[in-house]
Amino acid sequence: PVNGNVDVLVINGDKKIAVEVETGKSDVIRNIEKCLKAGIDEIVIVAVTSHVKERIERDLRKRNSVADGKAKIILSSVHAWFA
Question: Cys-Cys crosslink for 18: which of 3, 31, 32, 40, Cβ 3.0 to 4.6 Å?
């Protein structure tokens, strides 16, 4: 979240989806925890590079219970969209 806000918030009925663009400069685990605390149902994390995506994957493995079944986390890389 930038200034405590997610980058993009999509609301469809009762479902809330947060989209976070990660550059590698923020604490992604902390951002996920903030989203969970806000009641987000699904978190889409878009890494700006494959290196950032790999770092996030590593961080998520270290904290494998960060979502604790409360939210679905989708991790993607911008480069995957243009392959």
Answer: 40
Q: Which of 50, 42, 41 is nearest to 78 (CA)?
A: 50
CATH code for the domain of 36 = 3.40.50.720
Q: What is the chain's pLDDT, residue by residue, as a tens digit (83 residues)?
A: 455 688 999 999 999 999 989 888 888 888 888 888 888 998 888 888 888 888 888 888 887 666 676 667 777 777 776 76
**Residue 54 corresponds to which tokens in the numbers above?**
């790999």
Model pTM?
0.79
- Which domain does 57 fall in, by range? 8-81
